[in-house]
Amino acid sequence: MSKPVSKVREAKLEFYRKKGKIHAKATEGRFNSLRWAMVWFTQIIFYGACWLNWESNGLDRQAILFDIAHEKLYLFGLVLWPQDALLLAFVLILAATALFFVTALAGRLFCGFACPQTVYTMIFTWVEAKVEGDHLARLKLDQGPLNARKLGLKAIKHGIWFLIAAWTSITFVGYFTPIRDLLPTVFALETGPWEAFWLIFYAAFAYAQAGLAREAVCQHMCPYSRFQGVMFDPTTANVSYDRQRGEPRNVRRQAGNTGDCIDCGICVQVCPTGIDIRDGLQLACINCGLCIDACDQVMLKIGAPTGLIRFASEQELLGQPKPQGLLGRPRVLVYAAILVIFACFAVLTVAQRSLLLVDVLRDRGALLRETSEGRIENAYTLKLMNLDDTPRQYTVSVSGLPGLEIVGEREFSAEPGSIQPLMITVSAPGEGMPSGIQPIHFEIAAKHDAATRVQEKSSFVLP
Question: Domain boundary at 202, 229, 256, which?
């Protein structure tokens, strides 16, 4: 007798829930205005800073330029070299800590207002709305049949997207190749291989991320959304739905024991990532505040207090008092302390930064030699690095023993950003001197600036 065959139902695990393209409804309000203010602020800086000039030593150059070929970074009057990598480390630490600090205070504010993905998605979505219409018109156009009108609108939209992405890539590369030199080569199709690669890559990247991927980046690709939760605590303010006030939802707006939420769905319609904030904190939420703007408008229309959706912490939603100052928020206090400490280190490093670096090496082939006049000579190699952006003249002196002097030239020149090896011979009297290895000091001073001087320790060998 055959055994009954058990039917096993296969379970499907979904790693990606496809909702289709999101067409968010436009809304007005203080958070929307702030978001657009950040778009203007960041893009004026990005598109405009590469066109600024800076006069240095009678020559005009681009004010901000990452000159990789010559291993220099120009930041207005400051010229940084690979030896200044410590400053870059400080900048990265400060940027990361500032991001953590803001996240601990108010969630993903960076994502909602200043992230490049958010900024360029707003620009591309604005173009889409101007070409294809509001969110309902765009949805109808996408669901409609392919015809001449649809092809024409899509072609116009993607053409404008391409122009924005192309100009963005030119601007980006213009920070590495002077923008005024780059533009003629771009229009003449005479760019170098690396410039051409980055122009094509960055344009394609901006077009795909801001125009095609859009909210999918925040929903599925952004790593920050995955670990942001470890920086939250019960006092972190996030865009939140006040469930105690809003539930149960008053769909028909009837009097009685009901909440203020009328289940209009406007908070979902305006969300750029398509989530329902009433379901609680979600990794796709970028804290843009558009649902707050939309909900406040509805509350005003029905005569209810605003703030059903607002920036609020877990403690606030539970009716607990807010902590006063940073002392009640140890996580925020730690981030603030790290910011202050590394900011001080960065300022101190810049203040003590010297445009002259010197390394002294003894000649290992011969410890000493005696001249016919009875003097003792030691040979050294001094490596002078001129971190200035112009050629400089330097004088070398030595001290530490009586009668100590340099044999030959004492003045040397160094090209900008170069390492100039100097062969130095130091002589001392042969009589009346202590024996053995004695400490001495080399002092190298710039002729153009008495404050630019370096003193390096070394040793002098006597018989």
Answer: 229
